[in-house]
What does this fold into?
Amino acid sequence: MEYFLDVVKIVIPALLVFLTSWVLLRNMIRNDQEKRRQEIILQGARTVMPIKLQAYERIVLFLERISLESLLIRVSTNDMTVTELQSALTAAIRGEFEHNLSQQIYMSPQAWEVVRNARSNTIKLINIEAEKIKEDAPAIELSRLILSRVMELDQEPTKAAIDYIKGEVGRMI
It folds into this structure.
């Protein structure tokens, strides 16, 4: 019996030391794994954030390029007819949009939808104003109509989209 008590006196402290060591090591390993996981997430965020910001910058540039004032200045020439100007404006918008399609990967679905709506509403505005004039009329008449319509709006579709994008970027940063 005395031998059994001696063994118990040795085994119990050894078990306590073993269990304490095991619990401490397990917690240290878990903490280390959690730190590594957080570092990987942080590193990913450091890599992705500049790309996301760059995508938002490109979309703002796209929206500025398809704003009706800048578009009319860039596309319109003196010898164009209403139909030619309407076609050139819509083609420029579609070309710019297609050039920036890949940016949607880095944007929220809501922001991308706002951008798509701005594009659609801009094209719709051009088409509605073009229907009010004869097809072979000088393009300057369409330009005047479009600009006067823009002045009547509370906010041009592209400007509203730019404001939304700025707000979203502000929340990201």
Summary: The chain has a mean pLDDT of 93. The chain has one domain: 48-172. The CA atoms of residues 29 and 35 lie 10 Å apart. The radius of gyration is 32 Å.
